[in-house]
Amino acid sequence: MLDAAINGLSVKPAGTYVDATFGGGGHSRAILDKLDDGRLIAFDQDEDAIRNLPDDPRLVFLNHNFRFLKNFLKWHESIPVDGILADLGISSHQIDKSERGFSTRFDGPLDMRMNRKSDKSAANVVNNYTTDELANVLYLYGELKNAKKIANAIEKRRSAQAIETTGQLVELLTPLAARGREMKFMAQVFQALRIEVNGELDALKALLEQSVEVLKPGGRLVIISYHSLEDRLVKNFLRSGNFEGKIEKDFFGNVSGPFKLVSKLQKASDEEIKQNKRARSARLRIAEKNQ
């Protein structure tokens, strides 16, 4: 959804923009193509993203989580900004490498850390969380109704031998998946572990809240999410300014949230899905900060 996201950002040639999820650099390059003497500040906590950096003096790259958006923009004297873009999906250079542990397609270490300096890996969660803690992670972040049963199966296996690879986890849990829904089931388990390892929802909340403080009036916020937990937070915040979606109105009945929606929810086209199957779950939302 590159074109739709960049169009939604409405880039001004002399503006200052943030790419909160640099990844492979596709969005950043597209923004730079529209800038003249403007500035782009890009975040990515994954060291592998550094390999994708273009040689461009207008780009400032920060090897940090976007949850620190406001502090770093203040440090670089870049507040306010004209637009912020965040593509919340896993980068291809993460999911396509077996040693990163993000994918069920490969047998590799049970890792899933976006920041490999972090002490918490998926193996830590699977082997060290209590059964109740593990069940909560699976239920809240994977939306798995049989979370307790999954946690008990993990507890039984790890009591005999530590679960250290993605292959071991998939082999253990396959009998618990409904027939014909094995891939969906594993995706939910891996999603839950990944969110817990990386604190993804808390980071997203921090980004959304700080965006109100750092965007200029009229500045654009463009978010691409890939599962309902992310999209619900984004939708509620853009509509109401809070994560519960509670609409507050002023004396005259006007909605008093910090943003106004620029367009309806956008989804990937059939052609985009054909080129990249992961785009099937992409949800694009665009909002503009109120004047």
CATH topology of the largest domain: Rossmann fold
Assembly annotation: single chain
Q: How many beta-strand elements? A: 8
**pLDDT below 50 for ≥5 consecutive residues: which ranges?**
none
Reading the helices and strands in chain order gives HEHEEHEHHHHHHHEHEEHE
Number of domains: 2
**Number of helical segments with 4 or more residues:** 12
Describe, in plain words, how this protein is organized in 3D.
This protein is an alpha/beta fold and 291 residues long. It has 2 domains: 2-92 and 200-289, Vaccinia Virus protein VP39 (Rossmann fold, 3-Layer(aba) Sandwich), CATH 3.40.50; 100-198, DNA polymerase, domain 1 (Orthogonal Bundle), CATH 1.10.150. 41% of the residues lie in helices and 15% in strands. It is built from 12 helices and 8 strands. It has helices at residues 2-9, 26-34, 69-75, 92-95, 122-128, 131-142, 147-158, 166-173, 182-198, 200-214, 228-240, 270-275; strands at residues 16-19, 39-43, 59-62, 81-87, 215-225, 259-261, 266-267, 283-289. Strands 1, 2, 3, 4, 5, 6, 7 and 8 form an 8-stranded mixed β-sheet that branches. Helix 2 (26-34) links the parallel strand 1 and strand 2 (39-43). It starts with a helix and ends with a strand. The model has no long low-confidence stretch (mean pLDDT 93).
